[in-house]
């Protein structure tokens, strides 16, 4: 697999055969391929690994190849919006794009001290894997393209004291629309969300049955996401969209249900139950149990024994 690293935006634009950026910290461009270039891309049939030292947003229409969410393949003929944060590695395999693509790249220093620098940390999709891209509907694609064009017009104008503020305003709008469209995508993929959550629960069951809670403690978000073959933020957002609760809430609910079963077993002890569920100190377990159920483990056992 070929690895490509871009340390500067200039290196990126040169590789994409785009003009040298007007600003070393920001660029936007549109790339158009002719038929021969598309044919060359198809025949190359290569897998690439990319990483860059800056934020990158690209809008492409995929005409060949696969984009995979976890273990599930999707039609990617619609416009595809990809987000990459600095130092993030992403992979593309056998992907062929149509003749028109948009690229927008900006360095952290370009937004440093601006309100958007704080806002961008809240957009989880910059930390999704590339196989968790945003697939746009035709209307959504039109909206995003219009924002790209507005930014490009301002970028190509003679720079003045208003230029950067106007560009940042359009960029913030693009990010907000992307957030809206991602939430739509989660809602429209209920079956996939349900499948991911079902597998999430199965992994927790397997982890418990193999005594991993007792041996390793609570599973981390990163470990669970790796088992699902998605990024942990995508896992978190999918579970929230499907259940209305966070992934951590779901783990805690799983632990409480298993605790109830263990506490009612013959010769069960509160400390033994706590250790089996990964708690180093039984008092932490008792505190969590009461918080989630309204009663202490002992009160739960006593009440069950009266029924």
TrEMBL record:
Keywords: DNA-binding, Transcription, Transcription regulation. PROSITE patterns: HTH_ARAC_FAMILY_2 (PS01124). Residues 202-303 form the HTH araC/xylS-type domain. Transmembrane segments: none annotated. GO terms for molecular function: DNA-binding transcription factor activity; sequence-specific DNA binding. Gene3D superfamilies: Homeodomain-like. InterPro entries: Homeodomain-like_sf, HTH_AraC, Tscrpt_reg_AraC-type_HTH. Pfam families: HTH_18 (PF12833). This is HTH araC/xylS-type domain-containing protein.
């Amino acid at each position: 697999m070929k690895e490509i690293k871009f340390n500067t935006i200039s290196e990126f634009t040169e590789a994409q055969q785009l003009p040298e950026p007007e600003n070393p910290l920001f660029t936007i461009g549109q790339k158009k391929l002719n038929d021969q270039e598309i044919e060359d891309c198809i025949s190359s049939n290569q897998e690439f690994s990319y990483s860059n030292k800056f934020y990158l947003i690209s809008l492409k229409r995929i005409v060949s190849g696969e984009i995979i969410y976890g273990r599930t393949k999707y039609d990617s003929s619609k416009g595809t919006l990809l987000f990459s944060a600095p130092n993030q590695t992403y992979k593309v395999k056998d992907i062929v794009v149509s003749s028109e693509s948009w690229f927008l790249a900006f360095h952290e220093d370009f937004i440093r001290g601006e309100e958007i620098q704080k806002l961008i940390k809240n957009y989880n999709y910059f930390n999704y894997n590339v196989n968790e891209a945003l697939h746009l509907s035709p209307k959504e694609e039109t909206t995003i393209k219009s924002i790209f064009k507005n930014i490009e017009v301002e970028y190509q104008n003679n720079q003045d004291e208003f230029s950067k503020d106007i560009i940042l305003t359009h960029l913030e709008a693009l990010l907000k629309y992307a957030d809206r469209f991602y939430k739509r995508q989660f809602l429209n993929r209920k079956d996939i969300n349900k499948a991911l959550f079902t597998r999430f629960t199965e992994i927790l069951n397997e982890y418990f049955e193999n005594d991993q809670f007792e041996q390793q403690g609570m599973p981390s978000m990163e470990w669970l996401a790796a088992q699902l073959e998605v990024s942990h933020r995508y896992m978190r957002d999918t579970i929230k969209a499907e259940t209305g609760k966070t992934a951590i809430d779901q783990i805690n609910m799983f632990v409480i249900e298993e605790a109830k079963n263990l506490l009612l077993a013959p010769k069960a002890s509160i400390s033994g139950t706590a250790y089996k569920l990964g708690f180093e100190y039984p008092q932490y377990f008792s505190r969590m149990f009461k918080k989630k159920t309204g009663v202490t483990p002992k009160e739960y056992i006593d009440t069950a024994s009266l029924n």
